[in-house]
Amino acid sequence: MQSPTKTEFTGIIRPAYGAKTVLKEKFVEIYESFFKGNDPSAGQPNFWSELFLLKVNVVYLLKCLSDISQDQLLAIKNNISKLFLKSIETMKEENVQRKINAIDTLCALLQGIFSKKFNNFSFEVINLLTGLNNADTVFPKFVDAIKCLMNDGETAQVKYDALRLTIVVVCGNSNINQNSLNGYFMKDDIFDPLINIMLAPETSHVAYEAIMLLDILANYNKHESKNPYLIKLINLKNEAVFEKIMNVLATTCVNCRSKYIDIQDDDEANKYFVSSLASYVGSILSWTGNGTKKHSNVSDPELAFVRLPSANVSIILVFYDLLNNNKRFVDHLAKSIVKFPISAESKVNGRDSTTIATENGKESIEMVRDGPYFCEFLSISSYILQHNRTNRTASYANVILLILVILVEDSTFNKVICEDERRFIVRLCRQRPPLLQNAKFPRPLVGIILDVVIGFINHNLRRKLQTDLYSMSLGVIHRIMSYLKKNCVRLPYHWSEIWQSLIGLLKFILSNIEYFQQDRDSVNEVLLSAINIINLSVTFGDSFFPDPISYDNLFYEIIRAKETFDGLSSIVNKTNFTKLGSPTKSAFQKPMSSSQFDVLSNINTICTHFSLKIEGWKLTNRVKSITPEQVAIINANYDTLELVTPEKLDHYTPYNEIPYHVPLLRQVLRVIVEDFKRREVLLD
């Protein structure tokens, strides 16, 4: 029996008298009989050998499985089990085509079975494929066959097909913890083969799939049992692996960001820089996305934005898991930033830049290289956080903010991102008002991180307030300020943006307080965290503000918001902050109790003190209001201001996944598994 090429028909079914002859593929003939409950292999010793030489008609096979009911599947259980076992045996044969056809058969068979709505997924799937008594014999053979096909000596195509089959099995249920088939990959792990696929030149184009599969396996029942993938991730120290993961992460981020810019180019004046940057990134990475292009003619941009981000962005879970579990990886990330200092030979006006021609060839503009892969993560993060409108995007927003929390708790990483000599330009989302300052000049990464978080605060003020995300975003700001205060790092930054965002959040909570009754504790925690950041700035801002004007602007914004703080006083006085000091579901900041310090005491003192001075100044100068340019009146009256100096304003509860974030991350994992299954396959 020879393998048909494309659609070669080898069987003839005799038609009714006068009708035309109907030709069928041999593959279709066999599987028609197979799904009717017949055994076409009976009495044919070469049947299976010849079957796996036939090109698999995946479309037909999937349709058969889609059309058949669960009860009908169980009725032909013996045929299913035989097909499953024979496919596994064929995977170990020497003939490459048979191997590939066996894998294609299994992929279609398992996808069809997994699409059924089983009451008990694992029990019924195992019963159908092997029978309960044979599972511990057959499935280890299955995993061993996959492992063998992933090892050296096999062709790149066979390795990829084995990888594809494993993804089908592991992600068969979006709740991977309820898929007990994954337990067999724990007993005989495929960690090393996946690493080899990731790094080998001939399979590096599927590194994304290998990385994602490895991380999903590392999340399987990781808190309930010993997970060999997680243990190996924790102990991983191979710099080449770290570099490859960051490489793939950065390229995926560029690709995913381009989807947003295709809908709305939010920086038209910078399009030459962006397109050149995408080309630069693509030139140094093994595979690349489309970069950034002029936006297409989208009839409904808002609907288009809701469908984003691209499913491939699921790779940020890998970034989270490595940062949370492997300190060496955090150090590698910091070193990747240090690798890109401004080189003397490429400076233009003190910036690391490349000159590129414009369309007409007569002008040139500077392109500041984005350097570290981390910059691409910050860029896509700003787009996701500002377009956070669905439960799906909220899942990714959670992971992004957790990543930032983990990073800004690390002193080594903080030191690098605060260093003034390492400055970068990162493209941040400017598709929704209010817009942050369009900082097109190089600056330390810590300022860019603050902008990403402020972008979230400004663009997610809704009556159904995502308090968990707000606690995280405020936790990022608080940790950064705590580091700046402790190390006396003076940060050049548009600080007024932070004050306006925090006060805007407080004003929103105050004006909508009646809508938050059912989630009052969480809202109160957000409120207190925002106030404590302001208190930290009032008390210790002289240690991290770049100049006295920044201090003046802080007091100016507080005074402008006097009515808001007056309104909040009644809420604060009724709130039991001692209770909030206990661990909560976010556990990002341990607020002080009201018995230790009246959280609005200093703020109210500032409002009262300066309001009297300003009113007197306005009468003297015959003006109705004070402007930011006239904040000198504030500076002139610091000497008579008496404030309390509270303790522990810079303290916070270090992040720990267990126990508060385990339920959240399990739900996030389900979203990510679903996205990974519908990813864009990134093949050359």
UniProtKB/TrEMBL annotation:
Its main location: membrane. It comes from the Eukaryota. Keywords: Membrane, Transmembrane, Transmembrane helix. It is found in: Membrane. Residues 437-680 form the Armadillo-like helical domain. It holds the Pfam family ARMH3_C. InterPro entries: ARM-type_fold, ARMD3-like, ARMH3_C. One of its GO terms (cellular component) is membrane. PANTHER family: ARMADILLO-LIKE HELICAL DOMAIN-CONTAINING PROTEIN 3. This is 11677_t:CDS:1. It comes from Funneliformis caledonium.
